[in-house]
Design goal:
About 5% of the residues lie in helices and about 50% in strands. It is mainly beta. The strands form 5 sheets. It has a 6-stranded antiparallel β-sheet. The chain has a 5-stranded antiparallel β-sheet with strand order 4-5-13-7-10, with no helix packed on it. A 4-stranded antiparallel β-sheet has the order 17-16-19-20, with no helix packed on it.
């Protein structure tokens, strides 16, 4: 059931307009940051790779569970760190994702992994590419790829072909990694992700810079951006499933969003001028 729900969420994220650099951000998981989420068990401080976010672990933490995403010195190749997802006693697994702009369509996603699992263990990688349609205010799925990782005791390269599903040139991508096991203590290590090859399709990037304060959100979220004098900007604050929690319009380059009545959790902020889109994940 968890696999089905994650797959549906992956499809929703890649087609709902949330995504908006060709290089995968923080692809070797060297850079980490710290966030706080508050649930029924009180504040939970957790670490995650910069430009990557845990998903199901955040919901688990809201009910007193743990966030099973860790920085590890077990890694492949150069650098000092990698990513480890570990199955705890209070969960059956965890996942992590990154959304970022792209300017062309690669031929495959590759990386290195190893995992220590048991019976009923599954590790999967999903990647999707979309193109934003400003007329219909939606994103069209251009290409996607999926791959399952098998148990291996040493770092092994994986390659996931990216298959076109529609017409157009992508401007956004999402990568999601999920790891599930019925055996507590099972571990998945991931490192050195990269896009390889290109289809020859390309699109110049033209994103809108954003600054947000404070993070985590409190009573209000201040949003600032590089505004052009002749453009009006639409702003939406949405849940991770695409539900619009707040929306507004401004041409000033700054506004304040009231968030005091929002439940604690993760959200996506979307800023668009009708031609370009930028998104940021925010936490309350």
């Amino acid at each position: 059931m968890k696999r089905i729900l994650l797959s549906l969420l992956f499809i929703a994220l890649t087609t709902s307009g949330l995504l908006r650099a060709q290089a995968i951000p923080n692809a070797s998981f060297e850079n980490w940051t710290q966030d706080t989420i508050t649930g029924f068990g009180g504040p939970v401080i957790y670490q995650h790779p910069v430009d990557w976010s845990p998903l199901s672990s955040l919901f688990n933490a809201l009910f007193g569970g743990t966030i099973n995403i860790f920085q590890t010195s077990v890694h492949y190749g150069s650098g000092n760190h990698g990513l480890m997802i570990e199955v705890g006693t209070d969960s059956i697994g965890a996942d992590i994702f990154s959304m970022f702009p792209v300017s062309s369509l690669p031929q495959k996603l590759s990386g290195y992994y190893k995992y220590e699992g048991g019976a009923n263990t599954a590790a999967n990688v999903l990647v999707g590419f979309t193109d934003y349609d400003p007329v219909n205010d939606t994103s069209i799925l251009i290409a996607q790829g999926t791959g399952s990782l098998v148990v291996t005791g040493s770092f092994t390269q994986f390659e996931i072909p990216i298959v076109g599903t529609g017409m157009g040139t992508p401007d956004s991508a999402i990568i999601m990694v999920e790891f599930m096991s019925g055996k507590p203590g099972s571990k998945l290590y991931l490192d050195a992700l990269s896009f390889d090859g290109t289809s020859g399709l390309s699109k110049p990037g033209n994103l809108i810079g954003m600054e947000l304060y404070p993070i985590p959100m409190q009573d209000e979220l201040l949003v600032r951006w590089n505004a052009s004098a002749d453009r009006t900007y639409d702003i939406r604050l949405m849940s991770l499933t695409g539900q619009v929690m707040w929306e507004g319009r401004s041409s000033e380059g700054a506004l304040s969003i009231p968030v005091n009545e929002l439940p604690r959790g993760a959200y996506m902020l979307r800023l668009s001028d009708g031609q370009n889109v930028s998104t940021r994940k925010v936490i309350k």
